[in-house]
Automatic annotation (TrEMBL):
Entry-linked InterPro entries: Asp/Glu/hydantoin_racemase, Asp/Glu_race, Asp/Glu_racemase_AS_1
Alphabetical GO biological process terms: peptidoglycan biosynthetic process
GO molecular function, one term: amino-acid racemase activity
Source organism, top-level taxon: Bacteria
Renumbered residue ranges of the record's region Disordered: 229-272
Record's protein name: Glutamate racemase
Keyword Isomerase included in the entry's annotation: yes
Assigned keywords, A-Z: Isomerase
């Protein structure tokens, strides 16, 4: 997509979802989608297989906007490589979910499943290619006859960051498949082939602006940005994480521990105004897209923006691996 305006909600207070109960995931998902809808979202993508498995029915029953979920691409794998078994790797909750069971039950293909909860934790810690990651994946994948496989399905969006390690371990003939393209196609279909155009100021094609807690500007060039993020984010102790009230639309989540932590309009004063919604930073890209980031209960600081850039660079590096 180009020339589109996106809102990105990262629930940093509660990740990873894969180790939580279904009831908790449903409530967290309702809160997150409610926040996005309150910000004017025309459609919502639940970019998490676990949240889709646990909460998609409740989300679609609660909100009037289209809600698109992530599903493991086991049907694509079966249609393309059905003569050989498919191995699905995902979080434990996705694997035991009724939604996946119904999907697999309709396929005429032998499907194996493997929960990999630690891989999510490695991704959250930005640990993508350490000896510990390699050891973990070799031990877990070693439980299967990999030579028999036709495809490996990534049933968790975090797992895309590890395609290079998976490619090293798997036999050359095994294809690695994820459901991202299918999700994006569904989004385009739901919105009639078009997306809401970004408004706001015009920026040069190579300029980007990040606004959070007063406003900071960086160059778009990736290497320049990463250098600045490393210098500012790490040099300042990783930035300041300020907790604020977390609201669902205008109603709020209640008076839990996070609900009691307030802030002023800049999210910097616990004794400030009545509430401080999730604070974000907006980035403009050269293709005309804008992405406004929200980290639940925290102002988006330099260290968190650095983390976003690390994830994006890692995904770019994995893009050509299948």
């Amino acid at each position: 997509f180009s020339g589109a305006e996106f809102l990105y909600f990262a629930d940093e207070d509660h990740v990873p979802y894969g180790t939580k109960s279904r009831a908790d995931i449903v409530q967290l998902s309702l809160d997150a989608v409610g926040f996005l809808v309150s910000r004017g979202a025309d459609a919502v993508v639940v970019a998490c297989n676990t949240a889709t498995s646990a909460a998609i029915s409740e989300l679609r029953g609660t909100f009037s906007v289209p809600v698109i979920g992530m599903e493991p691409a086991v049907k694509l794998a079966a249609d393309s490589f059905g003569a050989r078994p498919t191995l699905l790797i995902a979080t434990p909750l996705t694997i035991v979910g009724e939604k996946l069971a119904r999907l697999v039950g309709r396929l005429e293909c032998e499907t194996w499943s493997l929960p990999l909860p630690r891989l999510v934790e490695f991704a959250q810690d930005l640990e993508f290619d350490s000896p510990a990651v390699r050891t973990y994946l070799r031990q877990e994948l070693g439980k299967f006859e990999l030579a028999r496989l036709g495809s490996l399905v990534l049933g968790c969006t975090h797992f895309n960051y590890f395609k290079d390690i998976l490619r090293e371990i798997l036999p050359p003939h095994v294809r690695i498949i994820d459901g991202i393209d299918g999700t994006l196609n569904r989004l385009a279909s739901e919105l009639g082939g078009g997306l809401k155009l970004a408004g706001g100021e015009d920026l040069p094609s190579r300029a980007a602006k990040f606004n959070a807690d007063g406003g900071v500007e960086f160059d778009t060039n990736s290497s320049v940005q990463i250098d600045k993020f490393e210098e500012q984010g790490r040099g300042e102790g990783g930035g300041q994480s300020i907790k604020g009230k977390s609201k669902r639309g205008s109603e709020g989540r209640g008076e839990g521990e996070q609900g009691k932590e307030g802030g002023d309009e800049g999210c910097g004063d616990e004794q400030g105004a009545e509430r401080c919604d999730e604070c974000g930073g907006k980035i403009y890209y050269s293709n005309g897209n804008s992405v406004e980031y929200f980290y639940s209960g925290r102002a988006l600081d330099v260290a968190q923006l650095y983390k976003i850039e690390v994830f994006l660079k890692r995904l770019d590096a994995m893009r050509e691996i299948d």
